[in-house]
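Pasting as-is:
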Amino acid sequence: MRSSILLAISISLSLSSGVYGQEKSKVTLDKTNKTYTFLADKGSYISAIVAAKNDTEISLIDQNSQPIREVLNVNLKQSRLHFIADYDNPKMIYSGPIPNVTINRIVSQSEQNNYIQKTDSKLINQAFSMLESGEKTDDVWDILIKNNSPLIESLDDNSLLTFIYRGAKNNVLIFGAPANDHGWMERLGKSNIWYKSYKVPNDTQLSYKLAPDVPQFTGERYEKRVALLATAQRDANNPYYFPIAAKTKFEQSSVIDLNNLSNQYLKNAQSNSIVPALSFELDSNILKNKRNIKVYRFGDITKSNAIQIFMFDGPKYLEKVNLDSKLNTLVNNKLLPPIEAIFIDNLDNKTRGNELPDNPNFTKMLTSELLPTIEKNSPVKFSAKQRVLAGSSYGGIGATTTAFRRSDIFGNVISLSGSYWWAPKHKKSLNTYYVSENFMIKDLLPINFFITAGLFEGSRNGGKGILDGSRHLRDILRMKGYGVHYKEYAGGHDYYVWQSAIIDGLIALFAKDKVSIADS
């Protein structure tokens, strides 16, 4: 092997005494081979932040130097990395400028433990009885998965979903709905089969991952919670996954759609690659940052019925949802009028958390910097009635508060699972919904709304939550006289649900022959 110059980077962690059992963790950089090595034993849980200033690609590699997980790509400047070491001193390989790696946690296998809880199912009871009578685990498993995973059992007015997994040694965690929190599976007898059941509506649609052998260790609640990302992956026994373009099992989520409701308007949708009409980097003097903007045009936007949509978290709605292809199909099939769609990059989680919820500077950026650039390069200027702000989670509350502040520019809002539990620091202690209260005391504004929430988005601790907050805002808006379309989905905080909900919203607000949107 050629000689390498190793630069050892010792990263000191701010730890409470006695919490982690070690004061320092190390990662080494080999500039010659462009690799990082984590100094950790096989089976260790590793949590890190990987960041790069310029175009850099970085992947975890196996012992044969083959990529096994994408960490950064040219469109992603920062990533939270969580994984289990498949071998001693696992490595990452990078291309481009040297990325920065910050170690959060390295927890050895000996520090990890188990945690399980109980549930019930007729099929699982049958499987347990077979094991108790001496049947081989292979035979029991073959019977369980004959109709794929998860198991679906009919109830009177609902369905029983039972998630199953085989092979984990210590635990398996379900990441995603129908639990508003993560769900731990239980071991079936003394076998290596795991299971958990949920009673759900018959129109449930969601995506989920299974995380086998999640590291368990002493630490802060958030640290322990995100450790599941080290192993979370699509269900190997469920043939349906999302998004289709995802490359590996770690980026893919498995899909459940009990009533085949998703994309009901898009049976003949095309997934062709569509080139944006305009793509540029917006350098904001107001927010002191830069972001990528992509503008797409579908149909003849000079027509009087054309609309303009500003889509927050634009890269995710392009990559996960393929919203450009969906909009193109809807316009071509005359289900929507011509559309100019602006996809806005909201950068990293910290930035979007600061910018989207009720931030006057973000509104000013949209109206004083982004919109003039769009209008300068567009063949038409849209009125407030033709314009819609759309977003999910923080993007939902951001769309609402931005329109509240500038209804003269933005006359429509699509809020998908809006984070209406949010309040500024001086209002956090109050048991009220901040956004609802603002609309309550304000004169009626010229805004129309489409608001959604998931039935699995209730509060985890009995406090304010997405589902209750969305219902509260709906009631206040209607009491004030606003036009409000409202729909609840049997799903969770999930792009798989939002890919249908964003289309429902556009059709409810702008379709010539509007499809009826059920009001829950």
